[in-house]
């Protein structure tokens, strides 16, 4: 099997939130005031506020969002570690994938599976969060098997990251935390831009973004974002083509009511595998493509349509209802060479396969928020009920592929049609009731919340060769809760402490026993401090955490009943993760913006397969650090219009398997950017900007092993962009 994902199915999900109308108005007033004074201006506030956790930010510094509590709450009042990737960061770094988007956030381990444009796989605080911790606009975005929704960064306003177990509001979720991807929304002011890009590996892309009022009289606003890309990659037979369109529409008849509709459709073409051949005898990853260019197509279509509705009933109550329907279909072929021919070592033998999957999800979240006082205490009380329905179907077939001739490794090797041999269908319904109270007394904020979830999962597992059908019905339920406290001192320093829990029902089945997985449970203790520097647009945060997780899923090489050897998900006993995180974000009036982070993570397997107890989880470095700085030259200087940026991402050494018998070396990857605003030459060129971004500038391509499977880091990419805004 070419990848751990082929037999993987896991699900965990989340909820939603909104900014209040008062907060939006205050943010807009503040933006106007700072603009008049010449100071740095807050990012443009979208017309529908924060129903999806929209970030209020000043340059690189996120100030508040609804991601941490489903109510608009300043970051310093949230009793958990929270970070943001702001709109300005996205513009300066120009990320092309979700992994590049979040690469500079603390605790986030990207690149654990090397170069692979098919999936955005990553860990947070030592725990895999690919399937159960990615949310879109605060609503659940589940994943099963190879059915993972692809993220187009150009369609994002930003990303909010809440670290640690978060089921008290969001329902089934992972131990590491959650990533809330915030879609672009309609704006009050007109916004128009078109852009063309050219980059490494014959990469061609055109994109556009239009927004504003429909007309001058009616309270209707729109946004339309899209792109078209045709590109090769560093791996022969693995393209990176995409068509993307995202319409959005807002109706705001008065100050008490608003409705926003968000849509998206995309089609992505890439490869069924992107792995390199691992030479077991030599113990290293080669530069030989382990797949077959003639049998390596993967096409994914996906779409979503949803709405965010808010109505203020009176001075106390606000009702919100957010809903979305999403679907995807992926059709892929793959081949994978895993060993040398015993008689002729210049030939590499392997297997091949084909699969098709469908994933349909429907989720709705109903919320009622009340703001009131009881004596000296101010309350923000939130209650809600949400419902998620998921349908997943997977067809799989296995066969053979002609061997690779290492003297001509890129030659195509035709493979005949492979029939499907197994079919898996899963239906899952998740219902959750939650209640949270944020109690404010002077500078003290106490957050208490709890939630009860009911999960129903029905699985039909069919052997298409024999016609045998296995049916399993699974019923899971759990109560999760969170308690936290923050105290804002007069010096701007805010210490906090919290306890939180999470559980996650796991989609998919054990490939050996064919039994469904048990739910994963976790709990966290966290203490930290947040410091918003007075008279400076700078936010510093630090946190100490301890997380215990039971019934977690991980990857292991297993032998199936038919003799097939594959890298599959199995369920581990217990993992503990302890660590320290530090983050600094700033955007200053002198044109300098900076993000920096350091993370220490120590994972330990407390209960697991023989040989793993007491060991560390594979591919989780003890030490990670990152630094990105961008400087815009003074407008009255000789280099006016020029902007330069540079960053480094350091990954310490880690283990290549859970028995800790192999080691991944430490590495530092360098990124850079340079841009020029042509308005500095002549005002007639206002809105015209040229920018060049480089990722992994020095083309470092070390090997990296996870769960005993080895990959190679993605090499250097350089992208030039010419954008015109008006």
Automatic annotation (TrEMBL):
<keyword id="KW-0472">Membrane</keyword>
<dbReference type="InterPro" id="IPR036942">
    <property type="entry name" value="Beta-barrel_TonB_sf"/>
</dbReference>
<dbReference type="InterPro" id="IPR012910">
    <property type="entry name" value="Plug_dom"/>
</dbReference>
<comment type="similarity">
    <text>Belongs to the TonB-dependent receptor family.</text>
</comment>
<dbReference type="GO" id="GO:0038023">
    <property type="term" value="F:signaling receptor activity"/>
</dbReference>
<dbReference type="Pfam" id="PF00593">
    <property type="entry name" value="TonB_dep_Rec_b-barrel"/>
</dbReference>
<keyword id="KW-0812">Transmembrane</keyword>
<dbReference type="InterPro" id="IPR000531">
    <property type="entry name" value="Beta-barrel_TonB"/>
</dbReference>
<keyword id="KW-0410">Iron transport</keyword>
<keyword id="KW-0675">Receptor</keyword>
<keyword id="KW-0798">TonB box</keyword>
<feature type="signal peptide">
    <location>
        <begin position="1"/>
        <end position="27"/>
    </location>
</feature>
<keyword id="KW-0732">Signal</keyword>
<dbReference type="Pfam" id="PF07715">
    <property type="entry name" value="Plug"/>
</dbReference>
<feature type="domain" description="TonB-dependent receptor plug">
    <location>
        <begin position="77"/>
        <end position="177"/>
    </location>
</feature>
<dbReference type="InterPro" id="IPR039426">
    <property type="entry name" value="TonB-dep_rcpt-like"/>
</dbReference>
<protein>
    <submittedName>
        <fullName>TonB-dependent siderophore receptor</fullName>
    </submittedName>
</protein>
<dbReference type="GO" id="GO:0015344">
    <property type="term" value="F:siderophore uptake transmembrane transporter activity"/>
</dbReference>
<keyword id="KW-0998">Cell outer membrane</keyword>
<dbReference type="GO" id="GO:0015891">
    <property type="term" value="P:siderophore transport"/>
</dbReference>
<feature type="domain" description="TonB-dependent receptor-like beta-barrel">
    <location>
        <begin position="251"/>
        <end position="697"/>
    </location>
</feature>
<keyword id="KW-1134">Transmembrane beta strand</keyword>
<dbReference type="InterPro" id="IPR037066">
    <property type="entry name" value="Plug_dom_sf"/>
</dbReference>
<keyword id="KW-0813">Transport</keyword>
<dbReference type="InterPro" id="IPR010105">
    <property type="entry name" value="TonB_sidphr_rcpt"/>
</dbReference>
<keyword id="KW-0406">Ion transport</keyword>
<dbReference type="GO" id="GO:0009279">
    <property type="term" value="C:cell outer membrane"/>
</dbReference>
<keyword id="KW-0408">Iron</keyword>
């Amino acid at each position: 099997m070419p990848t751990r994902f082929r037999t993987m199915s896991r699900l965990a999900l989340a909820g939603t939130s909104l900014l209040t109308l008062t907060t939006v108005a205050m943010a807009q007033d503040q933006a106007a005031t700072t603009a008049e004074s010449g100071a740095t201006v807050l990012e443009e506030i979208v017309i529908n506020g924060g129903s999806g956790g929209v970030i209020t930010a000043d340059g690189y510094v996120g100030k508040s969002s609804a991601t941490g509590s489903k109510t608009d709450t300043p970051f310093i009042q949230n009793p958990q570690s929270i970070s943001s990737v702001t709109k300005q960061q996205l513009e300066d770094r120009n990320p092309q994938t979700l992994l590049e988007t979040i690469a500079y956030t603390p605790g986030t381990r990207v690149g654990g599976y090397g170069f692979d444009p098919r999936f955005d796989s990553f860990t947070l605080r030592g725990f895999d969060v690919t399937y159960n911790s990615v949310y879109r606009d605060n609503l659940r975005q589940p994943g099963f098997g190879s059915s993972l929704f692809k993220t187009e960064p150009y369609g994002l306003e930003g990303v909010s990251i809440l670290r640690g177990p978060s089921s008290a509001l969001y329902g089934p979720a992972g131990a590491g935390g959650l990533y809330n991807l915030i879609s672009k929304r309609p704006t009050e002011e007109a916004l128009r831009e078109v852009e063309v890009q050219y980059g490494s590996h014959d990469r061609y892309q055109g994109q556009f973004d239009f927004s504003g009022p429909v007309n001058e009289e009616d309270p209707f606003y729109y946004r339309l974002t899209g792109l078209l890309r045709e590109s090769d990659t560093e791996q022969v037979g693995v393209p990176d083509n995409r068509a993307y369109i995202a319409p959005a529409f807002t109706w705001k008849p008065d100050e008490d009511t608003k409705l926003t509709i968000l849509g998206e459709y995309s089609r992505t073409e890439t490869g069924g595998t992107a792995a390199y051949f691992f030479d077991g005898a030599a113990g290293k990853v080669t530069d030989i493509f382990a797949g077959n260019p003639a049998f390596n197509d993967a096409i994914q279509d996906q779409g979503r349509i949803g709405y965010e509705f808010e109505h203020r009933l009176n001075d106390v109550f606000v009702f919100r209802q957010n809903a979305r329907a999403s679907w995807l279909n992926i059709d892929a072929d793959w081949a994978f060479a895993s060993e040398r021919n015993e008689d002729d070592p210049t030939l590499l033998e392997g297997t091949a396969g084909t699969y098709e999957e469908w994933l349909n999800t429907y989720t709705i979240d109903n919320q009622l928020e009340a703001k009131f006082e009881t004596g000296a205490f101010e309350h923000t009380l939130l209650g809600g009920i949400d419902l998620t329905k998921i349908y997943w179907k997977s067809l799989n077939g296995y066969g053979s592929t002609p061997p690779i001739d290492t003297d001509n490794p890129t030659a195509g090797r035709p493979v005949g049609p492979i029939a499907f041999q197994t079919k898996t269908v899963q239906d899952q319904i998740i219902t959750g009731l939650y209640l949270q109270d944020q109690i404010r007394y002077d500078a003290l904020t106490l957050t208490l919340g709890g939630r009860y979830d009911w999960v129903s999962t029905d699985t039909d597992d069919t052997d298409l060769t024999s016609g045998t059908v296995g049916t399993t019905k699974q019923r899971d339920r759990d109560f999760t809760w969170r308690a936290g406290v923050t105290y804002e001192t007069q010096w701007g320093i805010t210490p906090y402490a919290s306890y939180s829990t999470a559980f996650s029902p796991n989609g998919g089945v054990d490939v050996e026993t064919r039994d469904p997985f048990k739910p994963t449970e976790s709990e966290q203790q966290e203490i930290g401090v947040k410091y918003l520097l007075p008279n400076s647009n700078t936010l510093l945060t630090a946190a100490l955490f301890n997380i215990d997780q039971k019934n977690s899923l991980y990857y292991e090489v297993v032998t199936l009943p038919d003799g097939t050897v594959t890298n599959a998900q199995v369920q581990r006993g217990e993992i503990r993760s302890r660590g320290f995180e530090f983050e600094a974000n700033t955007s200053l009036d002198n044109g300098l913006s900076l993000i920096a982070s350091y993370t220490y993570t120590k994972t330990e397997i407390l209960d697991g397969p023989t040989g793993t107890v007491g060991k560390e989880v594979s591919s989780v470095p003890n030490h990670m650090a990152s630094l990105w700085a961008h400087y815009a030259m003074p407008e009255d200087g000789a280099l006016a219009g020029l902007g330069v940026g540079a960053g480094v991402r350091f990954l310490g050494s880690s283990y290549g398997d859970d028995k800790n018998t192999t080691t991944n070396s430490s590495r530092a990857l360098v990124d850079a950017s340079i841009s020029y605003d042509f308005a500095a030459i002549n005002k007639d060129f206002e809105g015209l900007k040229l920018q060049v971004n480089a990722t992994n500038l020095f083309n470092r391509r070390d090997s990296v092993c996870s769960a005993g499977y080895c990959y190679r880091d993605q090499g250097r990419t350089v992208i030039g962009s010419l954008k015109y805004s008006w």
